[in-house]
Amino acid sequence: TCEAEAARAAMGGSASLLPREALREYQELTFLSKQEILLAYKRFSALLPKEERVDVCSARVPESQILTLPELRANPFQHRICHVFSTSEDGDDSMSFEDFLDMLSVFSDSATSDIKSHYAFRIFDFDDDGTLDRKDLEKLVNCLTGQGEESQLSNAEMEQLIQNILEESDIDKDGTINLSEFQHVVSRSPDFARYRGVR
């Protein structure tokens, strides 16, 4: 699909448009409309240096550029979001256009709450071990309350909060929250389904 774009660019055609086949495929694979995909393409292209805009589909945008997006700039989980959606083999959390589309798709209004909760779980799983343990929960709370001294919880407050979270969520009482336990809690929270994160 992206090869068609590269071929058209090589023949001097317009490289600023996404090929029709690619557009159709992206519509099938994401929760995004045709207009949203075209806008995403335009936004992604704008993050690239001019010389790389010829072959947008094979280009990667560094994490530092992705973090300039207004939706991510103030998000306390900005680095985790880039990490979770990046397919970079270098571990630099750069994004391809398809990574970018996946991210926008998950945070779109049309994504299901199961998809949203799956990715939220991955974002909150700071050590990428498949469970939310006490360390993950502590980092999660710190991200939500801010890192400043005036907003930081005392050790006792943090311990009590983590204990409350585990009592509410840790169904099998193993001291961690797995994906199904997380999704169970989220399913009882109607506000979560409305959470958009990135738009």
Automatic annotation (TrEMBL):
UniProt keywords, alphabetically: Calcium, Magnesium, Metal-binding, Repeat
Domain EF-hand: 112-147, 157-192
Any coiled-coil regions, as ranges: none
Gene3D superfamilies: EF-hand
Pfam families: EF-hand_7
Keyword Metal-binding: yes
InterPro entries, A to Z: CIBP, EF-hand-dom_pair, EF_Hand_1_Ca_BS, EF_hand_dom
GO MF annotation terms: calcium ion binding; magnesium ion binding
Descriptive protein name: CIB1 protein
Species: Pampusana beccarii (Western bronze ground-dove)
